[in-house]
Structures are given as structure tokens and as C-alpha cells.
Amino acid sequence: MSSLEWSxxxxxxxWQTACAQLELxxxxxxxxxxxxxxxxxxxxxxxxxxxxxINSPSGFHSTNLRSKLGxxxxxxxxxxxxxxxxxxxxxxxxxxxxxKRSQSADSSSGSNSNNNNNKSMPTVSSARNHTQSPRxxxxxxxxxxxxxxxxxxxxxxxxxxxxxxxxxETFAVSSSNEMAHAAATAVSKNPGxxxxxxxxxxxxGVGKTHLMHAIGHNILLHQPTAKVIYSTxxxxxxxxxxxxRTKSTINFKERYRTADILLLDDVQFIAGKNSVQExxxxxxxxxxxxxxxxxxxxxxxxxxxxxxxxxxxxxLEAGLMIDIQQPSFELRTAILxxxxxxxxxxxxxxxxxxxxxxxxxxxxxxxxxxxxxSAIELKGQELTMELIEQTLMTEADQKRPKIKTNxxxxxxxxxxxxxxxxxxxxxxxxKKKLTMARHVAMYICKEDLREPYAEIxxxxxxxxxxxxxxxxxxxxxxxxxxxxxxxxxxxxRMSLSGx
Length: 499
Hints:
The protein is α/β, with parallel strands linked by helices. It is built from 23 helices and nine strands. The strands form two sheets. It has a five-stranded parallel beta sheet with strand order 6-7-8-5-9, sandwiched between helices. The chain has a four-stranded mixed beta sheet with strand order 1-2-3-4. A hairpin with a 2-residue loop joins β2 and β3.
């Protein structure tokens, strides 16, 4: 059987390249204590197989490297060498192994091998004594290994494009998203076997992208060698256009069609783009044929995506489709507490409830927290209810149409919207329709015009400030739970902004 053994220089170059990659991916202590003392010393190619020899100074090193870092080491060496690599773990320093080779050569030519054996033993013994130092054992403890594995996942996830804070641990679960969370968890544990494709859809800030990234993180944690690709619909489109322009479509196809897991965010973006849909159709078929997992997100279900090819629509609908609803008040509160802890913003439960009552999505919660963190850290302000109220009002002002009118203008616009007389809206009738219109008018006067409660009450038949305050909070609560009223208030604001 013929074999080819790499030269010492070639082995050394390969190991230097591998070390450069390993140093980036591993902690300082683990790299210098457990990688450098265990070098690559041989590479042998035999009938298509590539066998790389790693020398460990002790059985302790060899066993732990194989069980804890073996998969990682094999992946890096395979990448450097350019072919799948098998690792042969051997005990003994490189110098002692060379001496043993000399022994073998001398023995075959009639030399005395016993003397050579005696010369090699102290080298191995010395290496073993060195590796049993307390510092080395501490660095290779279970906690250290878990830290290494976590660092590896974080590095790979970052290279793929996954957000480090979008994990299952930071995802708040409630009735509005529990089915999506359960399906995402199942997919991350058994990719390609359950719910393929998984199609998550819903409005902005409901957690679709968070769950998609969490799937990627979990797969990387349990399957470190898995090829995970994350892309948005826009990035996928741009990559195809660039591949066509540079005549590198073969590379594009090879990259996507050999994935183990494809995560495609905002898939609706590819609709109406014929060449993009054509490529995604074939990519989809290639992956599902080989039982590779596909996870997709969209702001709407497949049947509502206009200009999406029917053959593609049918494939998207063939898997599990889950509608993620807007988060409830309780869920928004939980999300805010989780995010505030991660951002190191010490928000109390009552503060969290105050924000959750005024913000309707996880994405907006993140924006509020960033504003609060900036005020605390950069401006030295204290976190109080007043600061939160000021931040909420500032955010609302920036995103809402500017209203240039007065209380009378609001009463007129609200009355016209509900087809009611202005005097009836300002009066004391408790008919349901009049009461709702009156409360909406009071709410807009306070929320948008920033008028004092007492001044607003004066315009509504002299009601006191507590009555207006009650109306304000009641409409605020209904808006958070009822999309139809939220849309009505938005329409009234649009009318007012045009005055």
C-alpha cells in the first residue's frame, strides 16, 4: 500500500495556520496550555485518506483533547488541509517519537535498540511531570471545557451572522408565541426530521427573528460541525445578482445547496424576482431531498405574499406554518425585564409595567431601553418614573404625525369620525358610543397636545382631572389589547396632522 508523508516544513506550515485559527476561537488559557503543547507532527496521505498525528505529552492530555476538543480540532485541520482529516492521537513528545523512529531504523540495521530506548524515556517522563501541574489541571477542568465550547459557539454564530443575545434563554414565552417556541425548540434538537420547513410569520417585533437565531445557536451548540447558513431575503437576492454579474453562480449554488440548516429571514422579499425565486426553488428542493432543515420567516403567510410563484408557495405551505401574535401586556413586561437585565438597566417591576402599557412590540422595547441606558450612563440621570415618562413621550413624538391644533380641533375631528355632534361628545350622556368618543378625545388631548388634565376636563362640561385621568388610562389599556381601536385612533391622528 503506497502512502505519502508530508515534509516537516509542510507539516509545520499547516500547524501554524491551524494555530492562528484556533487562537482566535479559544480562550487564552486553553490555547496556550492545551493546543501549543500538543502539536501536529505528521500528515500521511494513503489511498485518499488523510491521517494527521497529534502528539500529546501524556495520556491525560490525549484523552481530554479527543473527548473535549477533538471535533473542533478535526474541523480546523480539515479546513486547513483542504480534505477531511482523521486524527491519530499519540503520547510522547515529538523529539521522543523521532528517537523511536531512529531506534526502528537502527534496529533494522543491527543496532542496539535498548540503549536508544533508555535515552527516550526521560523525555516522555519529563513531559508527563510538567503536565500534572495544578495550573494545567485547573485550566482543563469541566468548567473550562464548557467555557471553551461556549466560546466556540459564540465565534461561529458571530461569523454566521447570528445575534449573540437571540437565544432560547432570552426568549419570553406566553400564549401568543408558545407554539412557535415549542416548534423552534423541536427543530433545533432534531433538524431535518421535524417540521421541515418551519415557517414563522407575524408582525414587526413579535419574535420571529429571535426564534430563528435561537435555532441556529442551539444547533451549533449540539452539532459544532453543522453547516448553518443565515441570510435575509434581501441578502439572498443581492448574492444571486452578484453571482450572476461575476459569473460565480456555481459557487453560490455550492454554498447554499450543501447547507445542513438554512435560516432565511423575511422570505417575502424574494417575491416578484423571477431569477431569485428560480434559484431558491432549486435550493429548497436540494435541501429537503437530503433532509436538511429550512427555517423561514415572513411578515405574512405564503398565500398572502403577492407575486410569489405557485410552485414555491405550495412548498412553503407543505411544512408547519405558525402565526405569532403581538405580545400581550404580561409578555411585554416579561420581555422588558429580561432585556433590562441583559442591558444592565435596573428596572423595577412597576417601571416595567409602565413601559409595557405604552409600547406594543419587543423591538420598540429595545429602543426604549437603549434610550434609558444612554440617559443613565452618558448623561448621569437617575432612573425614575419621570425619566421613563419623558423617554416614552419623546419616542412617541418622534414616531407620531405632528398635530397642529387645539382641544376644540380634537373634539371636532373625533366627533366627525364617529358621526356625532360635538355638544353630545362634550356633554354628560353615558351612552356607550358617546362615552367611547369622549374618552378617545380626552386621550388624544393628553397624549398628543400635552394639555393638563384639569384644562381638558374644563372643555368636557367641567369634568375634574381624575375623570380625565381615568379616561386616558382606559383608552390606553384598550389600545394595547384591541387593534381596531388602535387603528381608529391612528386614523384620527392622521386627520388631525393634516389640519
